[in-house]
Specification:
The protein is mainly alpha-helical. Helices cover 66% and strands 10% of the residues. Helix 1 runs antiparallel to helix 4, helix 2 packs antiparallel against helix 5 and helix 7 crosses helix 8. It binds zinc ion.
Length: 304
């Protein structure tokens, strides 16, 4: 286990440092060579550096054990940080878009230097190597975080390839306007990814679940237990990448308490058996046919 954590940390740090180097190189080159596309590409890489850094910085807070004030632990610190970060990335994307549009409208198109081409080629090769490394290590220790990081870097390679194509056309066709147009597209892409980060973090903060098929799995798990009927008011939310689950079941009202408890325990075990990453389950037991005054929340077979 310790080995896995070490590999993950080392891989993340290599990603941070590699990306930071490429990002800085592109930002400086973008400014020096006058290429907005290269500058935007560099800013996009910088946002990835911040994202990886947040995971590394938030890790000590996230892994704090639960206490009487934070009984569910403090894993949502990561989602809070992601939300703040998404605003930074969003405004950065808007800024790139507006600046590029301004350059086009005001015909402030500058001649580019060949330096931009070389740095973009270096960036593509560097990112490709980083992405392969992340993917290899992610597969080795089976980390979805590292694999997601690898996919993100592969997208960066696509962006840089687009920049290179634009630069190529700029030099071959003498069409310098292509550069701010590509920068605008990158700006839009950055805004789009910021919205994605915001939505994903807020889903967790607002007690939603990413995949609602979990409710079908819970109902199926309850149906496997004999003596447990009508699972309803099922609620689930995320604690980190785990689930907390609360549900009501009905049992024969004439059972002894210890028999009813045995069924509730079996329901808990059955759910844990069919769903990975369960943090906690609470099963509320009612006599068969019990009618609630009002069912305000949760999922049952009818409203799934
Ligand atoms: Zn109930």
């Amino acid at each position: 286990m310790e080995d896995r954590k070490k590999i993950m940390l080392r891989t993340s740090w290599i990603s941070v440092l590699g990306n930071a180097f490429l990002s800085l190189l592109k930002i400086v080159t973008g400014i020096v060579s006058g290429s907005l596309a290269v500058l935007s590409d560099g800013l996009d890489s910088a946002s990835d550096v911040f994202t990886s850094l947040i995971i590394l910085i938030a890790t000590p807070i996230i892994s704090r054990p639960p206490n009487s004030k934070y009984v569910y632990g403090q894993e949502k610190a990561e989602n809070m940080a992601s939300t703040i970060l998404s605003f930074v990335i969003f405004f950065m994307g808007c800024q790139i878009f507006i600046t590029s549009l301004g350059k086009i409208i005001h015909h402030e198109i500058t001649e580019l230097s060949l330096l931009a081409v070389w740095v973009t080629i270096i960036s593509i090769i560097g990112k490709l190597l980083l992405a392969l490394y992340q993917f290899y290590q992610g597969k080795r220790v089976n980390s979805s975080m590292l694999k997601a990081n690898a996919v993100n870097m592969r997208n960066d390679v696509i962006i840089s390839a687009g920049v290179l194509l634009g630069l190529g056309f700029t030099f071959l066709l003498k069409l310098p306007i292509l550069d701010p147009i590509i920068a605008m597209l990158i700006g839009l892409y950055i805004v789009y990814s910021a919205v994605g980060i915001f939505k994903d973090a807020n889903l967790v903060l607002m007690d939603g679940v990413r995949d609602t098929s979990i409710y079908r799995e819970i109902i199926e798990a309850v149906e496997k237990v004999s003596g447990a009927y009508n699972p309803h008011r099922i609620r689930s939310r995320h604690v980190g990448n785990m689930y907390t689950i609360v549900l009501d079941i009905e049992v024969d009202g004439n059972l002894l308490l210890k028999e009813a408890h045995h069924i509730a325990q079996a329901v808990e075990d059955s759910i844990k058996h069919s769903i990975d990453n369960v943090y906690d389950i609470v099963v509320h037991v009612e006599p068969k046919g019990f009618v609630h005054e009002e069912e305000k929340f949760g999922v049952n077979k009818d409203n799934l």
